[in-house]
Recover the amino acids of this structure.
């Protein structure tokens, strides 16, 4: 049940924008959408652009009616939350240390409507595994829940909607704003273990939470959102095991309320320690060798943003598996502009060079086709289970809104057939005093339909 006794109003994201109709190019074109005097790249593969799909016109706006969602994921390595300063938690949960986005108020960006938190390796003890068999939360799980709740409720006014911890996995959902809380409902949780003993233990697995937001999306009909927090098998050689775990989650996640399956939801955010590695060969023509990568990381001179093609696209196992259609069919991921999240020395921000640095921690997102002629939504779930036609893995650039003199006009009109999910930020937190993974977070906007328009 959603508690709605929260005071305070949500800060508007943007001034009311002036909508300028424009032509729509192909998803791979290079057209530019402009609103007012400032540039706003809106279609295709132009750096900083926002990809749009072709279809019947459905004007979409990132503005005051947008729903802001922050996804936070961290493999905490059984750490005690009391050993981490509270302000570092606020940096992670609210993005307080992130670079400002021109045209957006800091208050709005740092106070998203919904915050979904996924933790991995909360408690890996045998006692915790036994508790998980009976659906019980452990003392360490309560400690993490209490700490994050204090951080978000004491000074920020967030309400905890739901939380569950089974073994190493924990997912929490927070929301803010009296009006928003009145629109939230049908909160439900589903769990799928995938660890030891033929996938029955909770050292690995997935905890998912779903929610309905009334009055959002096309025609204000409301949208169903699913948050999936996973911890897959470790080690570079366990690639097929990770793929199997992905399929197992898709097959076995089942909610008590409609929609019951992951991919029947309007929007899905899948995050966690997915454990896909950078599979660097010992020698690679025209690229970095394993030793060269390690040496460069030792000197703090090689980040993904300086060499994304070779490090991420060509050597990342997850990108390779998505390209081959084996996992996460239909999902997107924002461009990675941060250093590998594993393995780091706690409190030092440096990589532990005894392990191959990798982007084990990720945030992927998916939007269901909501057009009238779309296939039955059950097919969306099946597409994640069976290999599809190979496609290019193209990380989506995060949205950047132009800052314009005399006010901000940051709008776009497109022709998407899906309820658009816009990624505003995707980053990792450096120098956390606990755990050997960098915590990651991503900020998303689910734009609302323009007033007075229809989907026809």
């Amino acid at each position: 049940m959603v508690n709605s006794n929260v005071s305070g109003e949500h800060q508007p994201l943007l001034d009311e924008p002036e909508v300028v109709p424009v032509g729509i190019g192909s998803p791979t074109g290079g057209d530019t959408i402009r609103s007012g005097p400032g540039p706003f790249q809106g279609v295709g593969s132009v750096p900083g652009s926002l990809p749009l799909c072709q279809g019947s016109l459905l004007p979409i706006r990132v503005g005051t009616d947008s729903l802001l969602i922050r996804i936070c994921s961290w493999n905490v390595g059984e750490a005690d939350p009391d050993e981490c300063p509270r302000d570092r938690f606020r940096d992670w949960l609210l993005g307080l240390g992130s670079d400002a986005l021109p045209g957006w108020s800091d208050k709005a960006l740092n106070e998203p409507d919904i915050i979904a938190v996924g933790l991995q390796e909360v408690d890996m003890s045998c006692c915790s595994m036994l508790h998980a068999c009976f659906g019980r939360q452990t003392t360490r799980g309560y400690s993490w829940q209490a700490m994050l709740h204090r951080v978000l409720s004491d000074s920020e006014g967030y309400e905890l909607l739901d939380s569950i911890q089974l073994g190493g996995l924990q997912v929490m959902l927070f929301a803010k704003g009296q009006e928003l809380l009145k629109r939230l409902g049908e909160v439900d949780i589903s769990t799928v273990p995938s660890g030891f003993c033929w996938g029955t233990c909770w050292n690995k697995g997935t905890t998912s939470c779903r929610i309905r937001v009334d009055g959002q999306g096309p025609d204000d009909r409301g949208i169903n959102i699913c948050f999936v927090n996973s911890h897959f098998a470790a080690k570079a050689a366990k690639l097929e095991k990770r793929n199997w775990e992905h399929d197992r989650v898709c097959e076995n996640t089942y909610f008590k309320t409609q929609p019951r399956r992951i991919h029947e939801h309007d929007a899905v955010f899948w995050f966690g320690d997915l454990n896909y590695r950078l599979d660097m060969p010992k020698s690679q023509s025209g690229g970095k060798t394993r030793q060269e990568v390690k040496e460069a990381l030792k000197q703090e001179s090689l980040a993904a943003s300086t060499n994304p093609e070779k490090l991420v696209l060509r050597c990342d196992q997850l990108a390779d598996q998505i390209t081959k259609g084996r996992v996460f069919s239909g999902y997107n991921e924002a461009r990675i502009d941060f250093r590998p999240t594993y393995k780091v020395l706690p409190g030092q921000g440096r990589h532990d060079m005894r392990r191959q640095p990798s982007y084990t921690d990720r945030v992927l997102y998916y939007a269901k086709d909501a057009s009238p002629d779309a296939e039955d939504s059950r097919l969306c779930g099946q597409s994640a289970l069976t290999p599809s036609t190979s496609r290019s893995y193209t990380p989506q650039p995060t949205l950047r809104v132009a800052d314009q003199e005399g006010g901000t006009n940051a709008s776009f009109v497109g022709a998407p057939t899906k309820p658009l999910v816009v990624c505003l930020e995707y980053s990792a937190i450096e120098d956390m005093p606990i755990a050997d993974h960098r915590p990651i977070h991503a900020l998303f906007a689910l734009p609302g339909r323009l007033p007075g328009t229809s989907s026809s």
User: Anything to note?
Assistant: The chain is about 20% helix and 20% strand. The radius of gyration is 21 Å.
